[in-house]
Amino acid sequence: MSCNRAGTVLHGYFDCELDILDASEFERHLEHCSDCVNALEALQFLRSSMNLTQLYEKAPAPFRKKVLASLGSGRSVAASFPSRTVWSWLAAAAAILVTVYLGVQLGTSQRAGDYGTELAAEIVDAHLRSLQPGHLVDVVSTDQHTVKPWFDGKLDFSPPVHDFADQGFPLQGGRIDVVHGRTVAAVVYARRKHFVNVFIWPTNEKNSAPSSGARQGYQWTEWRKGGMEFCAVSDAAPSALEQLRSLLTSN
Amino acid sequence: MLDPPDQMRFETLVLPHLDAAFNLARWLLRSGTDAEDAAQEAMLRAYRFFHGFRGGDVRAWLLQIVRNTCFTWMEKNRHGKDTSEFDEALHGPVGPTPESLAIAADNRGRLTQALESLPSRFREVIVLRELEGCSYKEIATITSIPIGTVMSTLSRARRQLQLALNNPAKKEAIREL
């Protein structure tokens, strides 16, 4: 690898940590530097392999139980100070508070802060599931006039479907998926060798600016427009997701 | 130990990151059993220090504790475990050995082995970035690396990981001879 940018700036670009000026400067550089293009592809390959082989090690269930128990014992030490009745009253009050708090959390923060780590996790899981052989699309078509009617009768809303082949995002098809317990539309686009899943479902909340993040090496961007919530997820470059988002919002 | 409101905050804010805590410990210590012990110790420390937590990025706060617990753990149990860490001399270009071919058949095993061969400081940035999806700022907070050097640390870590993947350690092959 001879290009000296492949060693540093390229990683900032790959991780979407460059500011917009540096990122676009680097993209201009990419147009005529095959070293960097290859290096980016190698990084993408590494990231995809790490995700597809599911290197993430979740806490085993017995361990989780043990931790919860050990933290619970911390609680019983505190409990020895107030009388038993006071304590059980406090516990009941705390339980109610937790319930109320969780209720408020669920009600208001579907997207607050970090877009609910949980929802991001679900979206990435749904994306990973879709990449299993035979799972990507239920209706295979690059024609928006085939894909859009296909959703009719399967959903209680009509998701926007466009083919952006001319802009580098050819439509691949669509499928029905489930996110957060509700049925959603998944519209699939290709971006070079990558797939982008755009999950769409109706919302009562007003339009919002995009928020994005990364999880297990996948990028996601979500926004709301015209009574629909959109969440695009892919292992393509973050700039590609942003491009697709602006195509979708202006169409 | 914590009063009920703090207990509640702990349960709603910190406990959801138990997977993240375990995952980081697992990769830093390269053992599931050690990771259980270290992650549990870290959770207890987090529980004890929780009244000092004044809001902000709770995952980064917890992972910082996990990370420090793991490094202390490694210091204490340093009986040659780290000697298996990445040594560039061992990863020169080499033809495929029967071992490396068998390993290549199992991508997960191959990636695990390559990742585990990295020095812990490289391993942690890879795990935080690729598996946990942390931003550079979060990585800087967790690892105490200056934010300005997160990018170059990651780039060196990835280069070594790619090297380790392409040329699995010769050591195994040598041992066979």
Summarize the structure.
Chain A has 251 residues and is α+β, with helices and mostly antiparallel strands. Chain A contains nine helices and seven strands, in the order H-H-H-H-H-H-H-E-H-E-E-E-E-E-E-H.
Number of helices of chain B: 10
The biggest sheet of chain B, with number of strands, parallel, antiparallel or mixed sense and barrel status, is: none
What is the averaged pLDDT score of chain A? 80
Largest sheet of chain A: 7 strands, antiparallel
Give the strand content of chain A: 15-25%
Uncertain spans of chain B? 80-84, 86-105, 171-177
Oligomer: heterodimer
Quick one: how many beta strands of chain B?
A: 0
Structural class of chain A: alpha+beta
Radius of gyration from the alpha-carbon trace of chain B, in angstroms: 18 Å
Determine the N-to-C terminus distance of chain A: 41 Å
Percent helix among the residues of chain A?
40-55%
Q: Return the string of H and E elements of chain A.
A: HHHHHHHEHEEEEEEH
The level of helicity of chain B is: 55-70%
Structural class of chain B: mainly alpha
Which value, in Å, is the CA radius of gyration of chain A? 23 Å
Say how many strands of chain A there are: 7
Q: How do the strands and helices of this protein lay out in sequence?
A:
The complex is a heterodimer of chains A (251) and B (177).
Chain A: H1 9-14, H2 20-31, H3 34-52, H4 61-79, H5 84-108, H6 112-115, H7 117-130, E1 139-140, H8 144-151, E2 171-179, E3 182-191, E4 194-202, E5 208-215, E6 218-225, E7 228-234, H9 238-250
Antiparallel strand pairs in A: 1-2, 2-3, 3-4, 4-7, 5-6, 6-7
Chain B: H1 4-13, H2 18-29, H3 32-49, H4 58-76, H5 98-104, H6 107-116, H7 120-131, H8 136-143, H9 147-166, H10 171-176
